[in-house]
Amino acid sequence: MLLEKQSKWLEVAQSVMINEANAIQFAATHLDGSLSRAVEIILSHSGKVVVSGIGKSGHVAQKIAATLCSTGTPAVFLHAAEAVHGDLGVYTPGDPTILVSKSGSSEELIRLTPILRQFRSALIAIVGNLESHLAREADVVLDARIPREADPLGIVPTASAVVALALGDALAAALMIARQFTEQDFVRFHPAGQLGRNLYLHVGDVMHRFQDIAWVRPETSLKDVVIAMTQHPLGAACVVGEDNHLIGLITDGDVRRALQRFDDIRSLHARDIMTQNPIRITPDVTLGRAAEIMENRPSQISVLPVVEGESGICLGLIRLHDIYLGAR
Length: 328
Prior knowledge:
This protein has a five-stranded parallel beta sheet with strand order 2-1-3-4-5, sandwiched between helices. The chain has a four-stranded mixed beta sheet with strand order 7-8-9-10. It has a three-stranded antiparallel beta sheet with strand order 6-12-11. It has helices at 2-29, 33-43, 56-70, 80-83, 107-118, 133-137, 159-178, 183-189, 194-200, 203-206, 222-231, 252-261, 270-273, 287-295, 320-325; strands at residues 49-53, 75-79, 97-101, 123-127, 140-143, 208-209, 214-216, 236-240, 246-251, 275-276, 303-308, 313-319. By secondary structure, the chain is of the alpha/beta class. The two termini are 52 Å apart.
């Protein structure tokens, strides 16, 4: 009985997600010149965009405002109910407004429209009812109609919410292209987040330098390899030649596998268990690219040797841990 219930729950969950995806696809096919006009309105004003909504649409509006801010378009969220109780002070003349509403008949938003005209605010409506009062009053309407909500009852703001959110993302993306928004611009707005860290910092900024890592020669005994890795517990030891040219890499996993394969390890040396010509990286690579190299593969790599350009001279190590947590 429990398995039957769990199967039903999974079936419903999958249905919701599929229906939401279909609703977004449906909205995408109805995008037209209105989106371009919305972009032009926002670009023509040097100030900010105000995004407003109520209820679930209000939560969507908050996310749209946050996305616009992070992609080069200054924006603030205005709670539709609080607006007429003093929060209209956020406006400067000409600030365009994005109004989010499934029905297009939310009383709080309708009450705002004549007031916003006094602020010379162009109105961009994201609505699911093109015949609604809000749609008629808006300067530009982005079509957020859906076939039906995705929940089992067909009444919970599910598909309508994700479609409104997707339209906000689509508008933000179009504005990014119009503003020629770059990765460097994104970094300026996200200096403390992992996304910004991945773009802004390089391997050389967080790597462990040669003097702080375990490094051995090819002829170093396995015992001394283990001692070196214990003294510098970073999960690996670099095997280098006389000129510190990288020859191989020994990880904790290599040591464990050697213990499994050989009954007598006393005669083993670094060259017997190392990975020859391992994947390596240079200090100038961004952390984001380093993470891709380590993660986007059938078997994830947790540590990489860092070398100097084409010379192959070993400079140190970087761990996946260093990329995500900045631990040195």
